[in-house]
Backbone:
């Protein structure tokens, strides 16, 4: 009986220690990975502002080809120029995408199929209501 209790106690302690490490790691709200993404293609929806914009910037900083999939192309072009300037990555492009319009979604998908050989990362930063 005592051996069983020691095993359970050890497992519970291990799980609690792991939970504390995970909470501590993610508490800052920042990704600490330094993984390079050279040769990878990423699409980020809603990349003209907020978390989508910063996600696109981080992916570009890591060397990925980044496609900003945005409804407002003019705004997205300004963001793309800013990302290029701040990261030094010139492989940042804008594609029009309005996810509330299935015709726009189909057109976007067809364009991606025609221009890209592979898609490695897809980040959707859309607000779901």
Residues:
């Amino acid at each position: 009986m005592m051996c069983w209790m020691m095993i359970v106690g050890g497992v519970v302690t291990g799980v609690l220690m792991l939970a504390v490490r995970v909470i501590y790691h993610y508490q800052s709200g920042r990704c600490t990975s330094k993984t390079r993404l050279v040769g990878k293609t990423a699409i980020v929806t809603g990349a003209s502002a907020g978390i989508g914009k910063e996600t696109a910037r981080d992916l570009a900083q890591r060397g990925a080809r980044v496609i900003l999939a945005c409804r407002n192309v003019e705004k997205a072009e300004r963001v793309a120029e800013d990302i290029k300037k701040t990261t030094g990555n010139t492989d940042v492009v804008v594609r029009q995408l309005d996810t509330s319009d299935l015709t726009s979604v189909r057109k976007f998908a067809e364009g991606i199929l025609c221009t890209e050989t592979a898609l490695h990362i897809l980040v959707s930063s859309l607000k779901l209501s």
